[in-house]
Amino acid sequence: MVYLDHASAMPVDPRVLAYLRDHGDALCGNPSSLHSVGLAARRELEAARGRVAALINAPVSSSIVFTAGATEANNLAIRGTAERNQKHGKTIAVSAIEHISIINPAKYLVKQGFELATVPVDADGLVSPDVLAGLMTPDTTVVSINYANDEIGTIEPVRELARLVHEEEHRYLHVNATAAGGRIPIDVQSDEIDLLTLSSSDLGGPRGAGALYVAPGVRLQTVMPGGGQERGLRSGTENLPAIAGMGEAARIAGGEMEQESRRQQKIRDALIAGIGGIGETYLTGHPRLRLPNHASFRFGRIEGESILLNMDTLFGIQVATGSACTSQTLEPSHVLLAIGLTHEEAHGSMIMTTGRDTAEEAAPGVIDAVRQTVERLRALSPL
Ligand code: PMP
Predict the structure, then answer these.
(1) 71 C-beta closer than 6 A to ligand 1
(2) Those residues with Cβ within 8 angstroms of residue 377's Cβ, 6 or more apart along the chain or in another chain
(3) Which of 19, 93, 196, 210 has the fewest beta carbons closer than 10 A?
C-alpha cells in the first residue's frame, strides 16, 4: 500500500502517540481546575501552546487559541473578526480558491448583510497583489488568502499581500495555513499575518484540535460563548489529549521540516516528471511555487474518480481527486474552475500528497501504476 492522500488525513505520528502515552496522567484533568491534577493539565495545555507558537514564530504563546479543528478556527477568524470590526466596514475579501470552511462562513456573513468580494487567481492559482489592491475598499475589514492551496499546492505571496492589506487601518489578513503548516517555514511576524489557521491532523497530530493565531492587538468576537476558556474566544473544556498531541506534532514538524521537505520534494519532483510524461497529462498549480509534498494533475478524457478507484483497487495506492471535504458533491472543484479549467477538464483531476511515511523508492511504482491506469481507462473511455 502507498498512501498518497496526506492532505485529507495524515497518519498520527507514532512519536505523538508515545508522548500521549507517557504524559497520560497529566492529560486527564481539566486545565481550569485549581487542584494539582488541574494544574498539571494546565501545564500541558500551555506547553502545547508554546510549541504551536514556536512553529510559526508567534511573538507570544498567548496569541494561540486552540479550537476543535481548522474549520472552527476559520469560522472564528472570518466571522469573529468581521463581526467585531463591522463599525469599520462590512466587506470581506476571500480568494476564489479558499477551502469550503472559509467560503461557507463568508456566505453566512453575506446573509447577515456583509458584502463578499471574491479575489480571482491566475492560471497557476496565484493571487496577484495588483488584483487584490484593486479589489479592496476602505470598507474591507477582513481578507482571507490561503498560505498554500490543498488541491493544487500553490504557495501564495503572503508577505506582499499582507503589506497591501495593512495599507488601511482596521483591515486584517487571515491566512489558512492548514496545508502549509509544518511543511514550509511560516513566520507570522515577518509575514505580517494577523490571523492564521493550523490543524492538528495536518501536522501529524490527532484529530479534534486546531489553532487560530491571533496577532496581539487584533480584536475579534467569539463564535462560541460559554465558560470563557481560551481568552474567552473559544469556550468549552479544552480537548487536552488532542491539543497536547498537536503541540508535540508541531514540535516534531518544526524540527524536521528542512530535511523532510527536501526528502519529500525529491519524491514530488519524480512524480511530476514521470506522470507529466504521460500523454494529455497536465500539472495543476504552480510549477515551482508549490508545497514540497504536493503533486497534482489533470488528465484528458478520463474522470478523477475512476483514476482514484483504479489506483486503489488494482495497485493499493490511495490518491485524491479533490478536497475530501467536498468529495460528496459531484460538482467540479471550485479551485480548478477558478484557475480557468472547464467543467470537463476539472473532472479529470488527481492529487497526490506525500508524508513522512512515504518512501522515496515508491515513486517509480506509483508512476507506473498511473500510466497503466490511464491507458486502461482511456481504452474504455467513450471520449
Ligand atoms: N483547510 C484545509 C486546507 C483543509 O485541507 C482542511 C481539511 N483537512 C480544513 C481546512 C478543515 O479542517 P478540519 O476538517 O480539520 O476542520
Answers:
(1) yes
(2) 302, 303, 306, 307, 310
(3) 19
Atom of ligand 1 minimally distant from the CA of 202: 8
Q: Of the listed 54, 289, 324, 325, which one is catalytic?
A: 325
What pLDDT was estimated at residue 331? Answer: 81
Whether 325 is catalytic: yes
The Å distance, Cα 210 to ligand 1 centre, comes to 9
C-alpha cell at 25: 496522567
Write down all domains in the chain, each with its CATH number in brackets: 2-8+257-380 (3.90.1150.10), 57-239 (3.40.640.10)
pLDDT tens digits for 204-257?
A: 999 999 999 999 999 999 999 999 999 999 999 999 999 999 999 999 999 999
Does residue 75 have its Cβ closer than 6 Å to ligand 1? Answer: no
Measured by CA distance, the residue closest to atom 12 of ligand 1 is 70
Q: Taking residues 151-167, what's their average pLDDT?
A: 98
Q: Flag the least confident range among 75-89, 109-123, 316-330.
A: 316-330
The answer to whether the CB of 25 falls within 8 A of the CB of 254 is no
Asked if residues 69 and 208 have their Cβ atoms less than 8 Å apart, the reply is yes
